[in-house]
Amino acid sequence: MIEQTIEVTDLHKRFGPTQALDGMTFTVAPGTVTGFVGPNGAGKSTTIRVILGLDAPDQGRALVGGQVYQHLRYPLRHVGALVDAGALQPSRTGRNHLLWMARSQKLTASRVDEVIELVGLTSAARRKAGGYSLGMRQRLGIAAAMLGDPPVLILDEPFNGMDPEGIIWIRRFLRSLAAEGRSVLVSSHLMGELEDMADQVVVVGRGKVLAHASVEELVARASGDQVLLRTPAPDQAVKALQRARAAATVIDRNTLSVTGIEAQRAVEILGQAGVAFSEVTAQRASLEDVYLQLTGGEAEFRAAVDGQVGR
Amino acid sequence: MSVTTSAPPRLTGKSASNSFQSVLWAEWIKFRTVRGWIIALVLAAAATFFLCYETAAGPHTGGCSGLPAGAICTSALPTVVPTGPGGGGVADTYEFVHHTLTRDGTVTAEITSLAGVTATNASNVQGSPSASHPGLASWAKAGLLLTPSTTQGSAYAAVMATGSHGVHFQYNYTHDTSGVAGTVTMPTSRWLRLVRSGDRITGYASTNGQRWTEVGSADLTGLPATVQVGLFATSPLTFHGDTGYPTLATAMFDHLNVDGSPASNSWLGQDIGTGRTSFYPTLATGSFHNSGTSVVVSGSGDIAPAVVQGLEGTHTASSSLLLGLIVGLLVVIVVAAMFVTTEYRRGLIRTTFTAIPARGRVLVAKGLVVGAIVFALSLVVMAVIVPLGQHLLRAHGNYVFSANTLTQVRIEIGASAVVAMAAITAIALSAMVRRAAVAITGSAAVFVLPFILAAAAGGGASAWLLRLTPAAGLSMLQALPHYSQVSYAYTLGNGYYPLTPLAGFAVVCGYTVIALAAATVLLNRRDA
Questions:
Q1: What is the ipTM for the molecules in this complex?
Q2: B35 CB near a chain A CB, below 8 Å?
Q3: B21: nearest CA in chain A?
Q4: What is the tens place of the pLDDT at every residue in A116-125?
Q5: Burial bucket for residue B291 (CB in 10 Å: 0-12, 13-18, 19+)
Q6: How many domains does chain B have?
Q7: Which residues of chain A lie closer than 8 angstroms to B521, CB-CB?
Q8: Which of these, B159, B217, B248, B478, has the minimum number of CB atoms within 10 Å of its CB?
């Protein structure tokens, strides 16, 4: 597998009064699944269309494996993309849909059958695509993305309309692709869908990157050093912790929230002061919380603007 | 020692894109895997065939059943269009004052005057010299003629003075060479001479009977030893707009002289092809008389290729095709438009441009795929219906101008090529407008509307529509050529187009190329 990156640099694009992209910049490294999250209208789809050479940016550029998409000879061998699973001619069979794509890349019909097998669509492949369920269309879209065995994969909202079983399948599938050294970019407007799958997360809002970090970093950043403490003697505990310059707030009769120290240190302090406690827990924020923290304002702003513009 | 240099490896070459062959293959698969489109095209072919068949087999005004080949009906009277040596229908109606010539010889005469009258009534009214006014037809002909037989449609060669086109040498109806210009009036008489040497006949002209210049020559292969030579006069229809008026020309000859083999002294005057079975309208039957040393010959008619498609009951190789072609074309336009616009409607165009970023190639490949399929289907239909249609017309007693194989093949290929070009243009227009309804309406308006307007408008407006709009492509259906030596209303109503077949096709191709170029520019500038 030849490792190839996606490099997005300073993309700007305006649609009429809307600044869709406003300096979008990030890189997707080989061997990782990078989540691309943000509220609807944050510029995810526009960015993906620019990467795929469908939209021209007003400024900036997007490279795949160091090349502009339009300069790739047989591009599906470099980049596999699932942009709109519903983009099918309903009276054409799934297999024929893949066949014309394969022929456009000088790929064989046997490769078509391989990817059909890969996504588990063999039994439905010779049926008209118009009769496919949303999940089957997603699988067909992934088969299309895999046709050229590309080192780079881009999937726009692949979980939309999928049943839980399908979501689990896609997660496993994308992880395995990254494990093979491919660069995988997966967009979603729901952070929860990316948990347990993405190595890196690019959080976007209003056409630019709000945060780009590993999942661990993001979680740690949002959680701070919050420790949850259960004790039958909350007053004594507060005094002991304050002496050690940690802040503690009483949440209820025997629960405290402690910030400024790690859980390990809290145990030591309470032990030295002889305060009894039943539980000390390091409080972890969920990825969802992080996302809401980062994009909350943006989402509200969006909603207001959307209401006015009627987009 | 030679130094070999190798080109540096290309980095981000702009030329890199899917090979055209792979794009073509992909678009071919796209088209053939939607059964509805294939069915629609086959139905279009069937509809075209059916409509052409019905047009040919249906009732026709002036058609009389049970007539011999070559017979047509005018005013419920069967008449015959003679067939010339070249196989085409000919007019062969004239006054001939002739006698026998055996083997080589020379005929000379001075033509001292040429005058004529024109009928007051149009050609559909029986002509009469009393209902006429002075007026010499520009293609009135009088001069010397040599023919092996006085049967209509025989081979011949003739040198002649004309009403206003000067001296001409003509043979076998379609061949025409011009010589000395100017009209014949008393001070400027014309001397004419016709020389036979074997199969070769040469025409000469002179203004004084001393200095002769060759006007033209013909090899009439297989000419028998004994032929008829003599004086002739004839005068064709003269046209005002679409209406033809019969004419009569009267020529005065002097210094008539026949050299060579012994000639009998008896000159025989004969009307060739006049009378009630002649299809060619005449003002009066011809006549001749001696006037002192002169011979005066009057004639009405023409010796020329026949162009009377406008007369009732006459047809050509392509006269049954139009309705079927227009209906087929409309279906083809719908399918071509759908081939592009469904991709836009379904969002599939993004998948296409992701697989093939060179958008112009996609457009051209789509055009070639649909164009080739349409061309092939149409060619099959045309190759069957063009001969079959003529057969049906003849079987029902209609006269069909015979078209040679080359012309028939050109009509078949030409009609198919024009439909294919229309399909390609519809594809380009669809890529520009992206919406099926707009694309179909627009393409139909561009290709079908101008023709309907041209047919309705008539006259100069019609001619310009057929020159400048895509309807010019219908010139490919032209079955009869324009003859500069035949005055006629060469109008759409009579089956004539203002442009030659290839020029008309070039106009269509021009529109197609412009549409493809504009669509490519637009596709490359627009976000997909």
A1: 0.83
A2: yes
A3: A104
A4: 999 999 999 9
A5: exposed
A6: 2
A7: none
A8: B217
